[in-house]
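User:
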Amino acid sequence: MKSIFAKILILLVGFVAGNLFWYLASPLWIDRVVDEVRPFEARQALLVKQGEFKNADSSHQGSGKVEIVTINGQTIMLFENFKVTNGPDLYVWLVADENPKNSAAVKNSKTLEVAILRGNIGNQNYTLPGGINLNDYGSVVIWCKQFGVLFASANLEVPLVY
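Assistant: Predicted structure:
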C-alpha cells in the first residue's frame, strides 16, 4: 500500500513540476508574433509622442518604435518593428518616470496599465483610455506583473516639428 501511495505522490509531484517548468521556461523558445495594421492612414493622425524601445538588461531585451497618436478623439499607441524577450504575464504600461533603468524605478513611479501584451514580436495597436493626460507619463514599459520585472522601456518624447 505504501509503494502505491509513493508512486502516486511521485507522479503528482512530477506532473506539477513539469507544468511549472513549462509555464516558466517555454516563453524562452516560443514567440508570439502579431502583425496588426494601422487602423488609419498616417496622414489622418496627429503624432503626440514617440520613442524607441531599449533593453532593460542583458536578459530582458526590447527594440522597435512606439508612437502615440490621436485621431477622431481616440488616442492610440502603435508598436512598429517591435520585439521583446518573451516571458510570462507581460503587460504594456505607461510610466511617469521618463527613463526607468530598472524594475525599482518602475515600482516607485506612477503607472497606468494599458493592456496585456498581445505578442512579443510584431506591429501592435493599443487604444488608450479616454481622458488620459499624456503629460503625466514619460515612458512606455513592457512589464512582467507576475514577477515585477522590467523587460523593456521606451522614453516618450514630443516629436520635433519643422
